[in-house]
Design a protein that fits this description.
The chain contains five helices and six strands, in the order αβββαβββααα. It is flat.
Length: 149
């Protein structure tokens, strides 16, 4: 480094070049993971009161944008301006200055109650050596107690 100064000028924020590089590598990994795994919109359109989003995965879904309070007074023309934003992680209505995350919309569509139930079911189905050992141990104790009538 020249004259002991941080190359990026981040020393005033308490960030060394090494820390910047570490954070950059970490952010790059998260970004690469998101590009491969997060739902992203390939296209979005508004017709007959619904926004239809086609995902890069080939799946699609629709929703009524007026469910959101900031779209209640929007005109049909304003709602029709919907488009994927950036890499497709969000939808944008530029004139209305509104943005909705694609992942958040999908979670809203699925519903919290169902999602929690399904995650619990799937996680309960996971087998591991610890679960097998615990199951054998419980079996030796007589298994599950009988339900009271």
């Amino acid at each position: 480094m020249e004259s002991g100064k941080n190359k990026r000028g981040l020393e005033k924020y308490g960030i060394s070049d090494e820390e910047f590089e570490r954070q950059y590598r970490e952010a790059t990994k998260r970004g690469e993971w998101a590009m491969k795994n997060e739902p992203r919109a390939a296209s979005a359109s508004y017709k007959d009161g619904e926004v239809t989003v086609r995902l890069l995965s080939g799946w699609s879904f629709s929703f009524d944008p007026r469910r959101f309070k900031f779209f209640k007074d929007a005109t049909e023309a304003e709602l029709a301006e919907v488009r994927p934003m950036g890499q497709g992680f969000a939808l944008e209505w530029e004139t209305l200055d509104q943005h909705l995350g694609v992942g958040s919309l999908i979670l809203d569509l699925i519903g919290n109650k169902y999602l929690v139930k399904e995650l619990g079911r799937r996680n309960g189905a996971v087998t591991s050596e610890r679960k097998r050992i615990a199951s054998r141990k419980n079996g030796k104790l007589g298994g599950r107690p009988k339900k009271a009538a």
